[in-house]
Amino acid sequence: MGPHPAVAAIRLAVRRVLHDVITECSEFESPDTERSRPTATGADRAAAPPPADRRPLVLVACSGGADSMALASALAFEARKLSVRAGAVTVDHGLQPGSDLRAAEVVSRLAAMRLDPVESVAVTVGRDGGPEAAARDARYAALDAAAERHGAAAVLLGHTRDDQAETVLLGLARGSGTRSLSGMAPVSGATGRYRRPFLQVDRQTARKACLVQAIPVWDDPHNADPAYTRSRLRHEGLPALEKALGKGVVEALARTAQLSRDDADALDAWAADAESAVRDDTGQLECAKLYALPPAVRRRVLRRAAVVAGAPAGSLFARHIEEVDRLITGWRGQGAINLPGRVEAQRQGGRLVIRQG
């Protein structure tokens, strides 16, 4: 008799990602590496240290909640069957009394799954961008540092299809365009470090997998606190949509994320190709050539230029780019546009100049 369907579903999702990681790691290894090494014999072989474990290390980011504990259990199971080492990191945000004790408990449970290394990392959460964004920034900084410290090939995150639906709705509310509607990517990070195996798995499946395996989970009270936007969306917004529109809203939103991501990727590639064609010999953007581009492509070119000039990508919103776009499409002699990061955009002699002021 096979595992419970919920357990089988989470294991399959993790197995697929681990196969991707193994394949990618093997592509970086030279086929001639082993052949080029001298062969030790006799006393030399006896004195030589044991070879380093060359299997890629995959870490799971685990809060102790149902999603990440289900992910940790699936990673522990699948890693033993594949050529992968499995470890875990839990981040103590220090936002609740006793958070250090909670983190220590999570570490103990992860170690019991025979994950190694396992560690808890305490962070200080700032205030930039609001409590949710500040906690997220601190968490990713800690995970990046842990991955570098241990030489991890990938870090698994427990975001589910429900989380994806919430992200799409938040992007829709911000009016930030196709890229925001594309939600969370299955693979993200500068080096493709972060992997999200559960984007096609619903939250209930992850919780059921923990239940049938008798895995204790912790329900973060912040997830039910109406002070947080995502919490209100989860407990009020999505249920209201399902009541009004019927079941299937979460699945439809997740499908919208994938379709939007495909469109956004194509437009980003178009904008990258078009950018060099709209610059003059000195590298300045030419307004006439920008005007000839489709709006979706032109605005991407403008955003790229603003980020290169020093505007923080996370603080650069659609309204900023729309103002810069008016220098191209609605030129009436207006002055410079101020952007985040002390970046200015202004039109000068048929050229669009974007630079730090």
TrEMBL record:
For this record, the Gene Ontology CC terms, alphabetical, are: cytoplasm
What this protein is called in its record is tRNA(Ile)-lysidine synthase
Record carries keyword DNA-binding: no
**EC number(s) from the headed UniProt entry:** 6.3.4.19
Where does this protein have compositionally biased stretches of type Low complexity? 38-47
Q: Which UniProt keywords apply?
A: ATP-binding, Cytoplasm, Ligase, Nucleotide-binding, tRNA processing
Q: What is its main location?
A: cytoplasm
UniProt domain comment = The N-terminal region contains the highly conserved SGGXDS motif, predicted to be a P-loop motif involved in ATP binding.
Q: Which family does it belong to?
A: Belongs to the tRNA(Ile)-lysidine synthase family.
Recorded superkingdom: Bacteria
Subcellular localization, as worded in the UniProt entry: Cytoplasm
Give all residue intervals belonging to the tRNA(Ile)-lysidine/2-thiocytidine synthase N-terminal domain.
58-236
Q: Name one GO biological process term.
A: tRNA modification
Per UniProt, what is one GO molecular function of this protein? Answer: tRNA(Ile)-lysidine synthase activity
Q: Which CDD domains match?
A: TilS_N
Function as written in the Swiss-Prot or TrEMBL entry:
Ligates lysine onto the cytidine present at position 34 of the AUA codon-specific tRNA(Ile) that contains the anticodon CAU, in an ATP-dependent manner. Cytidine is converted to lysidine, thus changing the amino acid specificity of the tRNA from methionine to isoleucine.
The UniProt annotation places ATP binding at 63-68
| Protein's UniProt keywords contain Cytoplasm | yes
Listed under catalytic activity are: cytidine(34) in tRNA(Ile2) + L-lysine + ATP = lysidine(34) in tRNA(Ile2) + AMP + diphosphate + H(+)
Residue ranges, annotated region (Disordered): 26-52
Could you say which enzyme class this protein belongs to? ligase
Domain tRNA(Ile)-lysidine synthase substrate-binding stretches: 285-352
